[in-house]
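Ticket #4471: structure output looks truncated?

Reporter: J.K.
Steps to reproduce: submitted the chain below (206 residues) through the standard prediction queue, then opened the result file.
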Amino acid sequence: MPVSINTNLKPIIFIHTQKAAGHSIRVALESVGYEWKMGINKHAPPRDIHSLDQYFSFAFVRNPFDACISRFSYHHREDKKNPQDLLFQRFSKDKDGVSSWIKSLKTDDCWADDKYNWKDTFKTQKKFLSDDSNDKILVDFVGKFEHLNDDFQKICDTIGCDNNLKGIHENSSTRKSNYREYYEDEAIEIIESMYKEDLECFNYEF
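Returned output as attached by the reporter:
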């Protein structure tokens, strides 16, 4: 988590939700004087953070349909060669490959195998951000990837710092096509079922 390194910056905790511009946000925060506290998993859920209520805490979420394609594309990058990546690379990069991968989420035990360290990878964002009972979201502000710059500006206004995110995030993704182009009907139904509470809680749809 980032912590203030001088008295001019409001103490914050940024909860890094996977595939929601977390790296770009971290770099933007570092550029204005925040640094990362060592010894804490960068993807730690808010319920694991002690004294959370003493900080301004925030996170970003992303449409699950889009986030799934982002994850699939990420693990298909040429520089990705670890065992996790190879599980994705069994599938072609096209629409048929995406559909086969999504179907495998329901049938292939490897996606639940602890040896691959998936941890919170395939959990809903609501569950990740909520208390143990999954009733209450624990962070003060939840921004949306789809409104990234506007929502990050709200955060900057709250903590009193410049917004350096735009230039940092502009070239962060090489995928140019719309996520909808990768889906066929059965894959849509699977993601709708897996991430139903995200779709409802954060008002997302296909």
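Triage note (M.O.): checked the attachment and the full token line is present. Residues 15 and 142 are 10 Å apart (CA to CA).
Status: closed, working as intended.
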